[in-house]
Amino acid sequence: MSEAWLLFDEMALREAAGRPRGRMPITMPPLSKVEQIDAKKMLFDSLRTASGTTGRRRRSFSVTQARQRVAELIEDFSPLRALETFRMLEQRIAEFCSQLDSD
User: For residue 58, how many other CB atoms are within 10 A of its CB?
Assistant: First the structure.
Protein backbone atom coordinates (compact mmCIF):
# COMPACT_ATOMS: atom_id res chain seq x y z
CA MET A 1 0.00 0.00 0.00
CA SER A 2 2.85 2.43 0.61
CA GLU A 3 3.30 3.35 -3.06
CA ALA A 4 -0.45 3.71 -3.49
CA TRP A 5 -0.57 6.12 -0.58
CA LEU A 6 2.04 8.35 -2.24
CA LEU A 7 0.02 8.86 -5.41
CA PHE A 8 -2.17 11.69 -4.19
CA ASP A 9 0.24 14.62 -3.88
CA GLU A 10 1.38 15.75 -7.32
CA MET A 11 3.49 18.63 -6.01
CA ALA A 12 5.46 16.34 -3.66
CA LEU A 13 5.98 13.91 -6.52
CA ARG A 14 7.27 16.65 -8.85
CA GLU A 15 9.60 18.05 -6.20
CA ALA A 16 10.95 14.59 -5.36
CA ALA A 17 11.67 14.13 -9.08
CA GLY A 18 13.73 17.32 -9.00
CA ARG A 19 11.34 19.40 -11.10
CA PRO A 20 8.93 21.21 -8.75
CA ARG A 21 7.83 23.58 -11.52
CA GLY A 22 7.79 20.90 -14.20
CA ARG A 23 4.97 20.79 -16.70
CA MET A 24 5.40 17.23 -17.96
CA PRO A 25 1.91 15.69 -17.81
CA ILE A 26 1.72 12.92 -15.23
CA THR A 27 -1.25 10.75 -14.49
CA MET A 28 -2.55 10.84 -10.94
CA PRO A 29 -5.27 8.26 -10.25
CA PRO A 30 -8.37 9.24 -8.31
CA LEU A 31 -7.86 8.55 -4.62
CA SER A 32 -10.76 6.09 -4.69
CA LYS A 33 -8.90 3.94 -7.27
CA VAL A 34 -5.36 4.23 -5.94
CA GLU A 35 -5.38 0.85 -4.20
CA GLN A 36 -6.73 -0.98 -7.24
CA ILE A 37 -3.83 -0.25 -9.61
CA ASP A 38 -0.20 -1.29 -9.92
CA ALA A 39 0.79 1.63 -7.73
CA LYS A 40 4.52 0.90 -7.66
CA LYS A 41 4.73 0.94 -11.45
CA MET A 42 2.58 4.06 -11.72
CA LEU A 43 4.59 5.87 -9.04
CA PHE A 44 7.93 4.97 -10.63
CA ASP A 45 6.70 5.86 -14.14
CA SER A 46 5.30 9.16 -12.87
CA LEU A 47 8.56 10.02 -11.11
CA ARG A 48 10.56 9.27 -14.26
CA THR A 49 8.20 11.39 -16.36
CA ALA A 50 8.16 14.24 -13.85
CA SER A 51 11.96 14.26 -13.75
CA GLY A 52 12.02 15.27 -17.41
CA THR A 53 15.14 13.19 -17.92
CA THR A 54 15.97 11.21 -21.03
CA GLY A 55 18.62 8.78 -22.15
CA ARG A 56 21.56 8.26 -19.82
CA ARG A 57 20.22 10.65 -17.20
CA ARG A 58 16.93 8.78 -17.06
CA ARG A 59 18.74 5.48 -16.53
CA SER A 60 20.72 6.99 -13.66
CA PHE A 61 17.66 8.62 -12.06
CA SER A 62 16.98 6.79 -8.78
CA VAL A 63 13.26 6.19 -8.48
CA THR A 64 13.77 4.47 -5.13
CA GLN A 65 15.40 7.58 -3.66
CA ALA A 66 12.72 9.76 -5.23
CA ARG A 67 10.00 7.52 -3.75
CA GLN A 68 11.45 8.03 -0.28
CA ARG A 69 11.66 11.76 -0.91
CA VAL A 70 7.96 11.88 -1.88
CA ALA A 71 7.06 10.43 1.52
CA GLU A 72 9.26 13.01 3.25
CA LEU A 73 7.73 15.91 1.30
CA ILE A 74 4.08 15.14 1.93
CA GLU A 75 2.99 17.41 4.75
CA ASP A 76 -0.62 16.33 5.10
CA PHE A 77 -1.67 12.71 4.83
CA SER A 78 -5.24 13.43 5.95
CA PRO A 79 -6.74 12.95 2.45
CA LEU A 80 -5.82 9.29 2.82
CA ARG A 81 -8.36 8.96 5.61
CA ALA A 82 -10.88 8.44 2.82
CA LEU A 83 -9.31 4.99 2.40
CA GLU A 84 -10.39 2.28 4.82
CA THR A 85 -6.95 0.62 4.82
CA PHE A 86 -5.29 3.86 5.85
CA ARG A 87 -7.80 4.40 8.65
CA MET A 88 -7.14 0.85 9.85
CA LEU A 89 -3.39 1.53 9.91
CA GLU A 90 -3.94 4.71 11.92
CA GLN A 91 -6.12 2.80 14.38
CA ARG A 92 -3.53 0.06 14.82
CA ILE A 93 -0.78 2.60 15.40
CA ALA A 94 -2.91 4.41 17.98
CA GLU A 95 -3.64 1.11 19.76
CA PHE A 96 0.05 0.19 19.78
CA CYS A 97 1.01 3.60 21.18
CA SER A 98 -1.60 3.35 23.94
CA GLN A 99 -0.26 -0.07 24.91
CA LEU A 100 3.21 1.45 25.19
CA ASP A 101 1.87 4.24 27.37
CA SER A 102 0.12 1.76 29.70
CA ASP A 103 3.27 -0.35 30.23
Answer: 12
Length of the chain counted residue by residue:
103
Helical residues (DSSP H) of 1-103, grouped into ranges = 10-16, 39-51, 55-60, 63-73, 84-102
Residues 6+ apart with CB under 8 A from 78: none
Residuewise pLDDT in 10s, the chain (103 residues):
689 999 999 999 999 999 999 999 998 899 999 989 999 999 999 999 999 988 888 888 999 999 999 999 999 999 999 999 999 999 999 999 988 877 6
Give the single-character DSSP code of 9: -
Q: Which residues does 94 contact at the CB level (< 8 Å), separation at least 6?
A: none
Angle between helices 63-73 and 39-51 (to 10 degrees): 90
Q: Which residues, other chains included, contact 64 with Cβ-Cβ below 8 Å and sequence gap of 6+?
A: none
